[in-house]
């Protein structure tokens, strides 16, 4: 069969629809090659039958035209009836069979059609060649009666402007704040620009929340438990972040209720029933040691929990909030009245609350009525009849009654100061602040003490920075009707966008998987042929940054890079020290080049052959079932604990006295 991608392939007859030519099958054992099997894409597929295994068994196509130092993608579909593997190489068709960038790449075949893909960079030649051979090597894996099937073998150049779908490298973090504060959620993502962002609350898009960070409005208790995430998109795909949970705590304003949380016992609360029951504070509260606990032994027609002697102002708005539940979900009603006859209503009368069977926050606002001057005889009453029944259990906590004006008129307070930032030329910096106080809060950001026009939000994003921004001091003034407060200064450090002395020897996004297993190869494109002269990289320092983006378990991994010269053998390579980790995150390391393992095995003034990234277990054994005693096995022998693992690995060599690396 043949896919649409094959139209740009440099391979001829990629899907075996035209027979077997120009594919060539060779074995020094016995076997045959036909196109008599059904393909996964089209009518036919390549079909190799092994009658007798050999030590040289290959299916290849020669005469391939290849460009130097160019990234290619090879993709194909394959399986074998026994699950026996194969390896792939791209090399010069004639002697000395120079490797052209892909060497003995082992593919772990299954017993049903699967798609395989690998990217590599051509090496071993400096001008265009037309003598490439792509070779599927079946030895030493094949056995008598094995059947190999291949289809849709496509080899294409990777465009230099290949688009990369978004990947989230820093997830939004959950937040805990108090009522009236704002919360800032942020994300860091990579991928082909431009990236777009859409924040969501409980799965619903938030209008206007389209930046890399999102600042909530002033929070209320109803926001407790809200889930925030962001959808990051570009032309090549999209990805949802993890959900970050918002936890809202309540710092009560000055309440006119005494002992609102029953922490001091039950007084001055009064429980009355013409049935039978008790009031204690022997139950755990909502985030506190105690709560009011009523037990109904016998149902009554007048069952109430109240507090008397409340001082109230006339024609004034109040907020009553409390937390409660009952074991049966039976309800209650609330009234605020004159404590004695004629029991005048003071603005809240028989307000029914639909209780649940677990702690829930309830809140109601009302305006006092029934009196024209301040009174001291108010009774706040929770009436349980006629809802209660024998064996009912009612629980109360954090009963707060406040004037609305008193509760809300608070000057601004900064709870999270802007943080200093370090960026490189051309990047932007985001400064943010979190403040509490009576809404509305206004913001004015300043740079070096001067107002920044239009910078009037809880966060501020700088323009693309130049070196002139280095050392700039940013702060924000937060204001409301009750006052203002100025934040601490945050300093912006701007580094040069590049270090002309440094060599980025590797910078690869890669997903380690059960096909490539422990060893992944990346050629040597853009690596100078001489690392001693004119710049002495071999005598400098190598810096590495390992960004672990996804990881399936907390298994310890030892990670390293190795450089090969001449041959892919242990005697011709040098390796960095291990970087050890067991979770996602970013890990940095550095070491003198001369401290590389087997540094002296490489002639640094000559061309390298390959760069290799290696995944090893906590003992330093490759996570690869091809390694057995005396070389292994690796710890646990369960690939699913290690793969797939997505990383970005960057290594920079800085020559002596070359300064610090600048990370791409």
Automatic annotation (TrEMBL):
<keyword id="KW-1015">Disulfide bond</keyword>
<dbReference type="InterPro" id="IPR007110">
    <property type="entry name" value="Ig-like_dom"/>
</dbReference>
<keyword id="KW-0325">Glycoprotein</keyword>
<protein>
    <submittedName>
        <fullName>Carbohydrate binding domain protein</fullName>
    </submittedName>
</protein>
<dbReference type="GO" id="GO:0050839">
    <property type="term" value="F:cell adhesion molecule binding"/>
</dbReference>
<dbReference type="InterPro" id="IPR003305">
    <property type="entry name" value="CenC_carb-bd"/>
</dbReference>
<keyword id="KW-0393">Immunoglobulin domain</keyword>
<dbReference type="Pfam" id="PF02018">
    <property type="entry name" value="CBM_4_9"/>
</dbReference>
<dbReference type="InterPro" id="IPR008979">
    <property type="entry name" value="Galactose-bd-like_sf"/>
</dbReference>
<dbReference type="InterPro" id="IPR013783">
    <property type="entry name" value="Ig-like_fold"/>
</dbReference>
<dbReference type="InterPro" id="IPR003599">
    <property type="entry name" value="Ig_sub"/>
</dbReference>
<keyword id="KW-0472">Membrane</keyword>
<feature type="domain" description="Ig-like">
    <location>
        <begin position="166"/>
        <end position="249"/>
    </location>
</feature>
<dbReference type="InterPro" id="IPR036179">
    <property type="entry name" value="Ig-like_dom_sf"/>
</dbReference>
<dbReference type="GO" id="GO:0016798">
    <property type="term" value="F:hydrolase activity, acting on glycosyl bonds"/>
</dbReference>
<dbReference type="GO" id="GO:0005911">
    <property type="term" value="C:cell-cell junction"/>
</dbReference>
<feature type="domain" description="Ig-like">
    <location>
        <begin position="412"/>
        <end position="493"/>
    </location>
</feature>
<keyword id="KW-0378">Hydrolase</keyword>
<dbReference type="GO" id="GO:0005886">
    <property type="term" value="C:plasma membrane"/>
</dbReference>
<dbReference type="InterPro" id="IPR051275">
    <property type="entry name" value="Cell_adhesion_signaling"/>
</dbReference>
<dbReference type="GO" id="GO:0098609">
    <property type="term" value="P:cell-cell adhesion"/>
</dbReference>
């Amino acid at each position: 069969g043949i896919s649409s991608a094959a139209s740009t392939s440099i391979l001829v007859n990629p899907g075996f629809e035209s027979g077997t030519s120009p594919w060539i099958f060779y074995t020094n054992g016995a076997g045959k090659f036909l196109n008599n099997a059904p393909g996964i894409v089209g009518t036919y597929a390549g079909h190799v039958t092994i009658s007798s295994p050999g030590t040289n068994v290959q299916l290849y196509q020669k005469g391939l035209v290849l460009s130097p130092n160019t990234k290619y993608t090879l993709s194909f579909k394959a399986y074998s009836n026994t699950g026996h593997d194969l390896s792939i190489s791209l090399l010069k068709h004639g002697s000395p069979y120079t490797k052209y960038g892909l060497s003995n790449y082992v593919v772990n075949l299954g017993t049903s059609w699967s798609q395989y893909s690998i990217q590599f960079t051509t090496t071993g030649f400096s001008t265009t060649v037309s003598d490439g051979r792509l070779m599927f090597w079946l030895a030493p894996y094949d056995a008598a009666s094995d059947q190999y099937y291949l289809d849709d073998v496509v080899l294409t150049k990777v465009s230099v402007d290949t688009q990369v779908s978004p990947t989230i490298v820093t997830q939004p973090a959950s937040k805990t704040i108090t009522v009236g504060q704002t919360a800032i959620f942020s994300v860091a993502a990579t991928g082909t620009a431009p990236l777009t962002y859409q924040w969501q609350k409980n799965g619903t898009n938030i209008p206007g929340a389209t930046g890399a960070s999102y600042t909530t409005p002033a929070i209320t208790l109803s926001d407790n438990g809200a889930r925030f995430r962001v959808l990051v998109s570009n032309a090549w795909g999209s990805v949802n972040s993890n959900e970050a949970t918002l936890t809202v705590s309540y710092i009560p304003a000055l309440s006119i209720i005494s002992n609102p949380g029953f922490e001091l016992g039950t007084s001055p609360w009064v429980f009355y029933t013409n049935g039978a029951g008790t009031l204690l504070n022997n139950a755990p509260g909502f985030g506190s040691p105690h709560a009011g606990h009523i037990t109904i032994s016998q149902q009554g027609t007048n069952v109430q929990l109240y507090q008397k002697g409340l001082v109230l102002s006339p024609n004034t708005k109040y907020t009553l909030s409390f937390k409660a539940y009952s074991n049966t979900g039976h309800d209650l009603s609330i009234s605020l009245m004159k404590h004695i006859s004629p029991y005048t209503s003071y603005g809240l009368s028989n307000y029914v609350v639909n209780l649940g069977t677990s702690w829930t926050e309830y809140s109601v606002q009302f305006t006092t009525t029934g009196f024209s001057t301040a009174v001291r005889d108010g009774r706040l009453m929770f009436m349980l009849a006629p809802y209660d029944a024998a064996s009912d259990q009612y629980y109360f906590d954090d009963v707060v009654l406040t004037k609305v004006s008193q509760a809300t008129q608070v000057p601004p307070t900064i709870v999270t100061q802007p943080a200093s930032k370090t960026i490189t030329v051309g990047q932007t910096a985001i400064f943010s602040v979190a403040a509490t106080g009576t809404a509305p809060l206004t913001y004015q950001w300043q740079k070096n003490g001067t107002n920044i026009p239009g910078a009037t939000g809880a966060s501020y994003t700088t323009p693309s920075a130049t070196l002139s921004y280095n050392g700039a001091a940013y702060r924000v003034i937060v204001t409301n009707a009750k006052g203002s407060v100025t934040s601490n200064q945050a300093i912006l450090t701007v580094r040069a966008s590049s270090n002309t002395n440094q060599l980025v020897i590797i910078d690869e996004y890669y997903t380690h998987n059960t096909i490539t297993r422990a060893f992944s190869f990346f050629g040597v494109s853009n690596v100078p042929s001489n690392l001693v002269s004119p710049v002495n990289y071999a005598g400098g320092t190598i810096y590495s940054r390992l960004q672990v983006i996804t990881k399936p378990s907390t298994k310890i991994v030892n990670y390293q890079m190795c450089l090969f010269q001449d041959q892919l053998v242990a005697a011709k390579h040098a390796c960095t020290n291990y970087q050890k980790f067991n979770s996602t995150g970013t890990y940095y390391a550095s070491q003198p080049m001369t401290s590389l393992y087997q540094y002296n095995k490489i002639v640094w003034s000559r061309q390298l052959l390959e760069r290799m990234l290696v995944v090893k277990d906590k003992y330093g054994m490759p996570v690869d079932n091809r390694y057995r005693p005396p070389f292994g096995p690796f710890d646990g022998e369960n690939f699913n604990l290690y793969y797939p693992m997505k990383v970005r690995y960057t290594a920079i060599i800085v020559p002596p006295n070359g300064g610090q690396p600048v990370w791409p």
